[in-house]
Amino acid sequence: MDSIKHTDSFSLKVVLPIIAIVASLIAAISIMGFWKGKQNKQSISSPSFGRKFPKVSHSDLVRATEGFSTSNLIGRGRYGSVYQGKLFEEKNMVAVKVFNLETRGAGKSFIVECNALKNVRHRNIVTILTACSSSDSSGNDFKALLYEFMPQGDLHNLLYSTRDGDGSSNLNNVSLSLRLNIVVNVSDALAYLHHNHQRTIVHNDIKPSNILLNDDMTAHVGDFGVAAFKSDSTTSSFSDSLLADSSAIKGTIGYIAPECAGGGRVSTSLDVYSFGIVLLEMFIRRMPTDDMFKDGMSIAKYAELNLPDNMLHIVDPQLLQELHICYETPMDLEKNEVKCLLSVLNIGLNCTRLVPSERMSMEVAAKLHGIRDKYLTTQKKEDKYLT
């Protein structure tokens, strides 16, 4: 009996306090975890934009887009759809990107795009007007971003849509000077993101459909939903955008740098490669996913095999027609247009080297400015002489 009493006494004096302490610790940890999760959820659903961004509600956007009508649908992306709509007192036309939150990674993409654009100011990067993070009429989470509307659409449509919309193969006539201006605009935007911003931003999805055109055909880089950031030059690692799905491919097939297949680290050279592909595509006017590019042949390899001697055989025939150049005659390397085309395509090749360290940086923008300005200046002199 004495031993039993002793055991009970020991349990009361030692074991029970220990159990109480452990229970308290578990409760404290649970509360901290709950609070941290709540804070994270709040930070995801309510990005801080500051007072300079006007507030809009779900109902405002419903009215602006006529109930997100398909007649106002102007584009679809990986994580949502884009509508045009009239908003604010001035009834200005805006682009409304509505995120499909049922798609894995869409919520993170919303945050990434907010963080990428809220402090970015550049003439060749889309302007974000505000964000909407609220609930719809059914009480479901709703997230949208509002941008300046780009009335001339995107570069993909410019290159591949028909003039009459009748389904014929009669593509829009895109002049050499316009192509030069667009490629300079995009290079300026990427140079700013990579070299002249308070933090390095890697876009991760440069392609024609993400290059938007305003009324005067000035190009703007858009869709930063899979961007990555580096805070300062002393930091070697980037914060990935798709934290919810680290296995997701960042970028689009045909424009992704080859090192991505092996899980290479995020770097500015990824954007350089994609930019080089877009540049080659603009002047050859073939998509990198064209049926002719298979069995080891890519648009970059195609250009490399044909430059310089057979350049006129691969350049968009509409350009040759505009420039009064016939590919059946010997190429005049002293001709202003020929020198311009060769210089631009060589930059495309230097941006698409297989080894990242061998690629040019986006400081190549200065070279493209020089090529364009020299072509336009010489062309004006020649036109003046002919008249």
From TrEMBL:
Residues 68-376 form the Protein kinase domain. Keywords: ATP-binding, Cell membrane, Endoplasmic reticulum, Glycoprotein, Kinase, Leucine-rich repeat, Membrane, Nucleotide-binding, Phosphoprotein, Receptor, Repeat, Serine/threonine-protein kinase, Signal, Transferase, Transmembrane, Transmembrane helix. The keyword Endoplasmic reticulum applies. It is an enzyme of class 2 (transferase). SMART domains: S_TKc (SM00220). Signal peptide: none annotated. PROSITE patterns: PROTEIN_KINASE_ATP (PS00107), PROTEIN_KINASE_DOM (PS50011), PROTEIN_KINASE_ST (PS00108). ATP binds at residue 97. It is found in: Cell membrane; Endoplasmic reticulum membrane. Its main location: membrane. InterPro entries: Kinase-like_dom_sf, LRR_receptor-like_kinase, Prot_kinase_dom, Protein_kinase_ATP_BS, Ser/Thr_kinase_AS. Pfam families: Pkinase. Its cofactor is Mn(2+). Its EC number is 2.7.11.1. GO terms for molecular function: ATP binding; protein serine/threonine kinase activity. The processed protein kinase Xa21 chain released by protein cleavage after X.oryzae pv. oryzae protein Ax21 detection translocates into the nucleus where it can bind and regulate WRKY62, a transcription factor. Confers resistance to the bacterial pathogen X.oryzae pv. oryzae (Xoo). Receptor kinase that detects X.oryzae pv. oryzae protein Ax21 to promote innate immunity. Following X.oryzae pv. oryzae protein Ax21 detection, undergoes cleavage, releasing the processed protein kinase Xa21 chain. This is Receptor kinase-like protein Xa21. It comes from Leersia perrieri. The lineage of its organism: Eukaryota, Viridiplantae, Streptophyta, Embryophyta, Tracheophyta.
